[in-house]
Each structure stands twice: as structure tokens, then as C-alpha cells.
Amino acid sequence: MTNNLIIYTTPTCVTCRAIMRKLDADGIKYSKVDVTEDTEAAERLKRNGYQQVPVLGWAGTLHSVDALPNIRKQIIADRDAQ
What is residue 75's three-state secondary structure? Predict the structure, then answer.
């Protein structure tokens, strides 16, 4: 699977930093989008009902942080299968 994980964040998001540290420790690659700088991304989150970060982008869909354990498991399983 070639899905790219995206973390929508802000400079002050403590939870976002904790998520990124965990992903880094697991060797999971991700892209970071600062919604204070990317107004188009911020509007996309708002249109989809998200009022705060972190929000995860995975498999073409936005997810709340609650989805992280399942996304993480899928990424690790895909990586290990290669």
C-alpha cells in the first residue's frame, strides 16, 4: 500500500508533537501540514467538521486522532510485508 500519512497541525499543538515523536520512534514516515500557514488545508478541515488539530489524512480520508492506533498498525503491517 502506498498511502501517505499526513498530520494536520499547528505550531502550538502539544498532542501533534507527541504523535510525531511516536511516529518518528516507530520509523513511520509522514507529512506535516501547518494549518496556520496552509489556509486551503484549514478550510478543508473545517468543511469536513474538524475544528481543532490534530487531524490525520490517510488513504484519501480525514480522521480524528482516535484512528491513529489502527492507521499505525496498518502502516507497520504494510511495511513489514514488503
Answer: helix
